[in-house]
C-alpha cells in the first residue's frame, strides 16, 4: 500500500507521524490511528524499518519537523531500535510503542529496547502494544496549542469517568 493511501487526508498537513518497523505491526499500531481519527487530528501512517530501511528512517526523521509533524509515534517489536533512533535524529517528541511480535521474548525485548534509552535521548514509552495510549498522549501534546483538541480530550476523559461510574452504580 502506498504511503499516500495510508494518510487520513492527502490535503491537510499531518501533525502526527505514525511509523512502525513492519507491516506486521499494523494490527497493534492501528489503535493509535483510530484515536487520532476520533480527535480529528491529521496523521500519516507508514512503515519505516530501522534495520531493513535504515536510510529511509534517517530521511524520515530528518525531514519530519520541516514537513510540519509535531510528534512521532514509533512502534516496533523485537530489537526495537526504531523509536530510539528516530528520537536521536529529530527534535520532535517521540512516543515509543513496544510491539509484541510473534518471535518476541514475551515482549520484554521490545519493552526494554525502547524503554532503556541513554540520558539525553528520551522516548516516551507506553505499555506493551498500548498504541491507543500513544495516540491519546500524542493528542495531549497537540492539545497544548490546539483548544479544539483540548476540549475533545476533556470530553473524552469525562465520558470515560461516566462510563466507569455507571458500571459502579450497576454493581451496587
Ligand atoms: C520488527 O521486527 C518489527 O517492528 C516487527 O515487530 C518485527 C517482526 O517483523 P516482521 O518479520 O514481521 O516483518 O522490526
From TrEMBL:
Binding, substrate: 22, 25, 52
Pathway(s) served: Purine metabolism; IMP biosynthesis via de novo pathway; 5-amino-1-(5-phospho-D-ribosyl)imidazole-4-carboxylate from 5-amino-1-(5-phospho-D-ribosyl)imidazole (N5-CAIR route): step 2/2
One family name in Pfam for this protein: AIRC
Enzyme Commission code: 5.4.99.18
GO molecular function terms attached to this record: 5-(carboxyamino)imidazole ribonucleotide mutase activity
Keywords: Isomerase, Purine biosynthesis
Matching SUPFAM superfamilies: N5-CAIR mutase (phosphoribosylaminoimidazole carboxylase, PurE)
Enzyme class: isomerase
GO biological process terms, semicolon-separated: 'de novo' IMP biosynthetic process
PurE domain sequence ranges: 14-164
Reactions catalysed: 5-carboxyamino-1-(5-phospho-D-ribosyl)imidazole + H(+) = 5-amino-1-(5-phospho-D-ribosyl)imidazole-4-carboxylate
Function recorded in the entry: Catalyzes the conversion of N5-carboxyaminoimidazole ribonucleotide (N5-CAIR) to 4-carboxy-5-aminoimidazole ribonucleotide (CAIR).
Similarity annotation: Belongs to the AIR carboxylase family. Class I subfamily.
Name of the protein this chain belongs to: N5-carboxyaminoimidazole ribonucleotide mutase
Organism of origin: Segetibacter aerophilus
Amino acid at each position: 500500500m502506498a504511503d499516500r493511501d495510508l494518510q487520513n487526508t492527502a490535503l491537510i498537513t499531518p501533525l502526527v507521524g505514525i511509523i512502525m518497523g513492519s507491516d506486521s505491526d499494523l494490527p497493534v499500531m492501528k489503535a493509535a490511528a483510530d484515536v487520532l481519527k476520533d480527535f480529528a487530528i491529521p496523521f500519516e501512517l507508514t512503515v519505516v524499518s530501522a534495520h531493513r530501511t535504515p536510510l529511509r528512517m534517517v530521511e524520515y526523521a530528518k525531514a519530519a519537523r520541516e514537513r510540519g509533524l509535531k510528534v512521532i509515534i514509533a512502534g516496533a517489536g523485537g530489537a526495537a531500535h526504531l523509536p530510539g533512533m528516530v528520537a536521536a535524529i529529530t527534535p520532535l517528541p517521540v512516543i515509543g510503542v513496544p510491539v509484541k511480535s510473534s518471535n518476541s521474548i514475551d515482549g520484554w525485548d521490545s519493552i526494554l529496547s525502547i524503554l532503556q534509552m541513554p540520558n539525553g535521548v528520551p522516548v516516551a514509552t507506553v505499555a506493551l502494544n498500548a498504541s491507543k495510549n500513544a495516540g491519546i498522549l500524542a493528542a495531549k501534546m497537540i492539545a497544548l496549542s490546539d483548544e479544539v483538541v483540548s476540549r475533545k480530550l476533556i470530553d473524552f476523559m469525562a465520558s470515560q469517568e461516566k462510563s466507569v461510574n455507571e458500571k459502579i452504580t450497576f454493581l451496587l
